[in-house]
Amino acid sequence: MNVYDFEVKDIFGKTVSLREYAGKVLLIINSATHCGFTAQYNDLEALYAAYRDAGFEILDFPCNQFGGQAPGTEAEISTFCRTRFGIAFPQFAKVDVNGPNACPLFTWLKEQKGFAGFDRSHPLAMPMHQTLLQADPDYEKKPDIKWNFTKFLIDRSGNVVARFEPIDSLAAIEDAINELL
């Protein structure tokens, strides 16, 4: 099984086979429009602009599971992202990434690359750790997505090769993308 075995709904409700992205390097993200990490859209769009002609795609899935930070309809989210950040990469329907209603794609992604911890040198690592620890003392042992802007890097064969947490360096993500391109 690989990422191409999944179908998802795009931001307009149309079913899309991820087989359409076969042979490309993919960065699949769960995003939110009202999150402290939302400014990452600027860097993500810059990555997309720099590498899309080399066979790179970002697939953006809004998720409202973390603090209700992706309110609004898909149309509102799309408009916000296009007008505020100039997003040109594909966006998909709002999904759950954890729990009983999790999108099958994200369930599979988590099975391939579970949570491996936060970069403890980042200034937000300890506050995130404390917040998550209060909600679930065993959070570190679970593969669940911990917050908005978790990213999964997929190689040209459809395999998950890396998982990046919201506080991971965009430079490290870019280096990993370059290796695959």
Write the layout of secondary structure elements.
Layout: E1 7-9, E2 15-17, E3 25-31, H1 40-51, E4 56-62, H2 74-85, H3 104-112, H4 125-135, E5 151-154, E6 160-164, H5 170-180
Parallel strand pairs: 3-4
Antiparallel strand pairs: 1-2, 3-5, 5-6
Rg estimate, integer Å: 15 Å
Classify the secondary structure makeup into a structural class.
Answer: alpha+beta
The number of helical runs is: 5
Q: Going across the major beta sheet, what is the strand order?
A: 4-3-5-6
> What is the beta-strand fraction?
15-25%
Let me know the average pLDDT.
94
Any idea what the shape is?
Answer: globular
Helix-strand topology string: EEEHEHHHEEH
Distance between the termini: 22 Å
Biggest sheet layout: 4 strands, mixed
Low-confidence stretches: none
> What is the β-strand count?
6
What portion of residues is helical? 25-40%
